[in-house]
């Protein structure tokens, strides 16, 4: 089944403890992206990757890192999480990019930073 | 920066009625898409309309795009309780010469409740 998977689905952590949220897609898509969703703010793009080894900042990249070493994986790294990063995170992918292409979303990861 | 602004923020209707949601954006775009989200789950693509199109249909969905007003509307006809969800518009900005063209900007969403 074609899908985008995220792990973990739920995570409670403490301030400053490094964490990684994984994202994987099995559709051979070149483009992958991370978003955070907060009440009243919709989805905001954190980082995106047009292809392997090519990443760029979205609108809210502060406090996050990403890497794209393989086409199928695009992990989101929080080196030193803070409470303001408590949010619902979504990974998405598409064949080549956001222009005119359906984005396929993962199920989301709920993160609580204490 | 938030490109898409949606209106209304919340909409409550009875089953069988039509639901109309609006999206406004600030810059020139290539395409506008509408997505649906059920209660904190992943977003699902509904329909895409290109900047040179004015109207598009898909089943009970009708989307219009007015590039002169920088706005779009999503109409759901004969709504059902199962249409209860949040609806988001997303735009990819034209002339993304300052980045790789990978930015996609979502609106804040309209929360639709359809009562049986």
Walkthrough of the structure:
The complex is a heterodimer of chains A (114) and B (116). Chain A is an all-beta fold. In chain A, the strands form two sheets. In chain A, strands 2, 4, 5, 6, 9, 10 and 11 form a seven-stranded mixed sheet that branches. A four-stranded antiparallel sheet of chain A has the order 1-3-8-7, with no helix packed on it. Chain A is 0% helix and 50% strand. By secondary structure, chain B is an all-beta fold. Chain B contains no helices and eleven strands. Chain B has strands at 5-7, 10-14, 19-24, 29-37, 43-50, 55-58, 61-66, 71-76, 85-93, 105-106, 110-115. In chain B, strands 2, 4, 5, 9, 10 and 11 form a six-stranded mixed sheet that branches. Chain B has a five-stranded antiparallel sheet with strand order 1-3-8-7-6, with no helix packed on it. The N and C termini of chain B lie far apart (37 Å). At the A-B interface, strand 4, strand 5, strand 9 and strand 10 of A face strand 4, strand 5, strand 9 and strand 10 of B.
Structural descriptors:
heterodimer, A: 114 residues, mainly beta, seven-stranded mixed sheet, four-stranded antiparallel sheet, 11 strands, 0% helix, globular, B: 116 residues, six-stranded mixed sheet, five-stranded antiparallel sheet
Could you provide a short overview of the structure?
Chain A has strands at 4-7, 10-13, 19-25, 31-38, 42-51, 54-57, 65-66, 76-78, 87-94, 104-105, 109-113. Chain A has 114 residues and is mainly beta. In chain B, the strands form two sheets. In chain B, strands 2, 4, 5, 9, 10 and 11 form a six-stranded mixed sheet that branches. In chain B, strands 1-3-8-7-6 form a five-stranded antiparallel sheet, with no helix packed on it.
Per-chain topology:
The complex is a heterodimer of chains A (114) and B (116).
Chain A: E1 4-7, E2 10-13, E3 19-25, E4 31-38, E5 42-51, E6 54-57, E7 65-66, E8 76-78, E9 87-94, E10 104-105, E11 109-113
Parallel strand pairs in A: 2-11
Antiparallel strand pairs in A: 1-3, 3-8, 4-5, 4-9, 5-6, 7-8, 9-10, 9-11
Chain B: E1 5-7, E2 10-14, E3 19-24, E4 29-37, E5 43-50, E6 55-58, E7 61-66, E8 71-76, E9 85-93, E10 105-106, E11 110-115
Parallel strand pairs in B: 2-11
Antiparallel strand pairs in B: 1-3, 3-8, 4-5, 4-9, 6-7, 7-8, 9-10, 9-11
């Amino acid at each position: 089944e074609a899908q985008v998977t995220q792990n973990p689905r739920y995570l409670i952590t403490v301030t400053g403890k490094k964490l990684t949220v994984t994202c994987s897609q099995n559709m051979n898509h070149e483009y992958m992206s991370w978003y955070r969703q907060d009440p009243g703010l919709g989805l905001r793009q954190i980082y995106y990757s047009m292809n392997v080894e090519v990443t760029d900042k979205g609108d809210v990249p502060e406090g996050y890192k990403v890497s794209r070493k393989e086409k199928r994986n695009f992990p989101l790294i929080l080196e030193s999480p803070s409470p303001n990063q408590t949010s619902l995170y979504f990974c998405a992918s598409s064949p080549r990019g956001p222009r005119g292409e359906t984005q396929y979303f993962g199920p989301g990861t709920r993160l609580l930073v204490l | 920066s938030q490109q898409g602004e949606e209106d209304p923020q919340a909409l409550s209707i009875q089953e069988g009625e039509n639901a109309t949601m609006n999206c406004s954006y600030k810059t020139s775009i290539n395409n506008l898409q509408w997505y649906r989200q059920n209660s904190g789950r992943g977003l699902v693509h509904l329909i895409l309309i290109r900047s040179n199109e004015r109207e598009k249909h898909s089943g009970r969905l009708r989307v219009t795009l007015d590039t002169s007003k920088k706005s779009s509307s999503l109409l759901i006809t004969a709504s059902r309780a199962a249409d209860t969800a949040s609806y988001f518009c997303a735009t990819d900005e034209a002339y993304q010469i300052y980045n790789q063209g990978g930015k996609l900007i979502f609106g804040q969403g309209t929360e639709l409740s359809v009562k049986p």
